[in-house]
Amino acid sequence: MKKGVMRPGHVQIRVLDMDEALKHYTDLLGLIETDRDDLGRVYLKAWTEVDKFSVVLREADEPGCDFMGFKVVNEEALIQLEKDLVAHGVVVEQVPEGELKDCGRRIRFTVASGHAFELYTDKLYTGKWGVTEVNPEAWPRGLSGMKAVRFDHCLFYGPELAAVYDVFVNVLGFHLAEQVLDPEGTRIAQFLTVSMKEHDIAFIHHEERGKFHHASFFLETWEDVLRAADLITMTDTSIDIGPTRHGLTHGKTIYFFDPSGNRNEVFCGGDYTYPDHKPVTWTADELGKAIFYHDRVLNERFLTVLT
User: Which helix (H) or strand (E) segment is 71 a member of?
Assistant: First the structure.
């Protein structure tokens, strides 16, 4: 049920020390700084992304995620989605053009889990970094660290997953790719997509509202994930778990933390999905295997360390 949402567009992450955060996100993850603004925010992108930025860092007193944004196909679709959200009882806030540098107007709303999201149509098109659009080379020279390919998705923890599902599926046009059900058949994890990817956003049930679990970045190969693990150790970066494989989505993954305590993921692979695919279901008794396929048990940090 396509409604006009194309893909994840950006995430704004709160960091405690901008200099330390920039070193992490550029030198280690391999994102490219593209701009700064008068509020002190720093704009970053991965090399294959065609818009000016996908990650915004904001220095603050506590870590976490301010909002995640999704790009909409055109202004007509944005206007209709705004009407649909309002008709659904969702409170919509107008964010003017230019509030994020070189980004058009955005509409922002908060879902029942306590997380803020926004939709927009326009952002400055800058093209892929370091390669031309005619006869491009395979990859650009001069990339740093893990050489992140793209910002891929976020995972959020919060309550009222059914209400969140209702907004994302019935209003915004996402579909459910994978889920975890408890013994009563209640969905306690949901992986939602507007693309062929297994998830563009995911939610796991948690009693506290508005918690941020991780922002994820795509790498090309398993060897790239193993190299990322080496770089994590070389830089004494705090690691959560991995390298390993997920049962959910089957992606190969490693989790680690930025200097402010925000969790990052880099991964490769993963299943594909189309809207006519039935959701893949995991049962709560197999949650350990669903999250960490090889270990088959959850580590405490993955469930409890949130920002």
Answer: strand 64-72
